[in-house]
Amino acid sequence: MHWNWGAGSGVTDGRTIGIQLGSKWTDGTGATENSLLVDGRLHKISENLIWDYSTTDFPAPWHIHGATADLVFTPFYDKVSAINLGVLGNNTHQCFGHYDGEIADSDGNRITVAGILGWAEDVHNRW
Fold it and tell me: Does the pLDDT of residue 30 top 80, yes or no?
């Protein structure tokens, strides 16, 4: 099992913003975990977003993008968890940092995201 998952929240331009982002484990299912919360109104992001990041340099900026989103996640800390028990294993990089960019709400308005505190992770589980 392999997935990306991330979230963040904060205030940009006087608006309370929350983002929920996911990838990989839902690819090809027609379902996504992606959403945007703006001032208490929830907007579903149905698009499968693309996650571009370095698997050899997790603290480097991550680019999460598609037609509805263009976000850069800049980590300041990488929490690493790993275990290998042969047939069972886990390798997780859970990075904490800030999101910047823009994301479209369900009405098509581009919402600015600036310095939103959050996290993003790359997880591989074998069981």
Answer: no
